[in-house]
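Forum: Protein Structure Q&A
Topic: Joint prediction for protein chains with partners

I've read a bunch of threads here and the consensus seems to be that you should model interacting components together rather than docking separate models afterwards. I'd like to see that in practice. Below is the full input, 537 residues plus whatever partners are listed. Could one of the regulars post the assembled result?
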Amino acid sequence: MKYLLMIYMNEDVFEALSQDERNAVFAGHDAFAPKIRESGEFIGTAALTNPTQSKTVRVRDGVTSATDGPYIETKEYLAGYYAVDCDSMDRAIELAAMIPDAALTAIEVRPVMDESGLEL
Amino acid sequence: MGIEHTDVEDLLRDAAPQVLGTLVRRYGTFDECEDAVQEALLAASVQWPAGGVPDNPRAWLVTVAGRRLVDQARSDISRRHREEAVAAMTPVDHLVAPAPDDDPRAADRDDTLTLLMLCCHPSLSPPTQAALTLRAVGGLTTAEIARAYFVPEATMAQRISRAKQSIKRAGSRFEMPAEPELTDRLRVVLQVLYLIFNEGYTASSGTVLARADLTREAIRLTRAVHELRPDDGEVAGLLALMILTEARRAARTGPDGELVPLTEQDRTRWDADAIRAGLALVAATLPHGPVGPYQVQAAIAAVHAEAPRAADTDWPQILSLYDLLSVLAPNPMVTLNRVVALAMVHGPRAGLDLLASLDTDPQLAGHHRVDAVRAHLLEMAGDRGAARMAYQQAARKTTSVPEQRYLSARAARLGTT
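Posted by a regular:
Agreed with the consensus. Here's the joint model:
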């Protein structure tokens, strides 16, 4: 079963950290990625820029507009993800708990949809 | 020239377990031999389509894989121990001519089952058993398996290598287990083959190309096991179940890839030859020996296959088969399918009552298929509002894109009031 582990970030929380604490977060990510590669559960990962760099794109009546900033303005924003393929939701939760941001903000775990289906 | 790529592919996949078995019997290291065979298969898949297939393909593969193995040993082992190690790795006949025991089919054929048992080792998770089986017995490349499971090739390579390490740690040997373990291990092999089949069969239009191979491989491997154990009713039952299910493939999805339920399928699109073959297998198997879950499931598939129209389906017969299956191999899906059969015989309200009594079953609670069955029965009972809500509930919970499309469409069809 595939899951997306979405890392949510809050700038205020991150800025309140000391340099050592910040370094520990980075080191935590550096340790996590090889761990899930080694276990054969890794599918992909990406870190996203700050949402101030976002463009939000809309098409109305065939006209495209791109405005500055995120679609939804919130304190918490998606900062990156790991995509994993593991045995169960319990295991996905276990993996999410290993991501350093889980101790600061939160990781949202959601099953990825499958293209397969049974005749119902 | 004149050789289709797929012919070479078939040849290689058929030869894979026999070559691996020969190597393991000579050198005794499953892990390294399996890597060497994979390399030999890759070399052949490049060289044979261009340069032609050698006279004795299996001997070629054994020789090339054997050389890789010796090369590997040379590079792995320190200079000091190298000479004696290589000497120890090299058999008397020195890899050139096939050993006298290579050709008789009996010895080679037994290897397929021994390898299947090793790959389906109980220390591995079912998906890992499936991946290792496809590579070591099916002769698929890591890249092909990774594509079928939608994971990066490096991830699949890592899983297979870890699986082989687990088997090594468990101290498992390349030999047929003795009874009663043999029977248990054969059951696991059948489960894994069925898992591989379903991975391929449930693929929707968008994923058919990547996964169709899995269905074909599962049937090919199950057929090989059936040839080795012709008197095992469960092996025959599983093969029949796969053939009868696969016969419906063309009818199970509509032109836009949407799922078509069994009762609404255009039965003229079912594969009549496959159904004949499946029915013959069921007829030949059922009268003999103890009846197991695969035979019962094959019998259910056979009852569906024998009905020219959905309305002709012998539901009382299907219900009694599900009654039997709930005793032999109870599981949540069997329970739900039995509810449907019961509703078809005794009416939707009887089905809904039974479904309500299952709400506290921890294995079923919260499962989207419970909502889907409830929705279907409510629709049959004419309660459109409640049916629509149950379809929507099921659509929110499913992790399958085609199922979600189907369930949302059913909900929409019942109106928006």
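The CA atoms of residues 15 and 113 of chain A lie 35 Å apart.
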